[in-house]
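re the bet — no i am not wrong, look at it urself. input seq straight from the record:
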Amino acid sequence: LDKCTAQAQQQSLLIQRNKKDPNPIKHFRKDLNLFLKGCKAKSELIILFGDFNEVLGSDSSGISNFARNYDLVDVMHSKHQQPDPATYARRQDRLDYILASPQIYQAVTACGYEPFNERFFSDHRGYFVDLDINQLFGNKLQHLAALPFREVRGKDTKCVTQYVEAKDK
């Protein structure tokens, strides 16, 4: 294992903390499960984005287990209903996905993967999800006042200083 990888560094930290099983994936899953369990207990909606380094459904104790246990929808697959594109340049697998509570899924207006290296150089595709916040939160986004009517202008150092000092008080 290359000692410069994130996995090797995480494993080293777990060993330093005297963890019996210093497997970063197992600890990630345990921590994620604890977090999601708390969300569910508070009836919170969940949206989970990630480079999970596994094909959804390939490991019954992996991320698909969270999708089942917390009733999460695979947003990209469900919205596009076509073969999943490779999201990692070195393999033909989809390792990056979005899982969401059904209420969030219903509020998705658009989602997709970008071509490799579209906005930034990476071995993963960028991806996005647009949400109807009115449907999701029950209110519309407030429109900003036109520039001439704003009291704080970012390029006016005197105005910004006054604002920061007032916020400090």
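see?? The two ends are 52 Å apart (CA to CA). told u. also The beta strands are 47-51, 73-74, 96-100, 108-113, 127-131. so pay up
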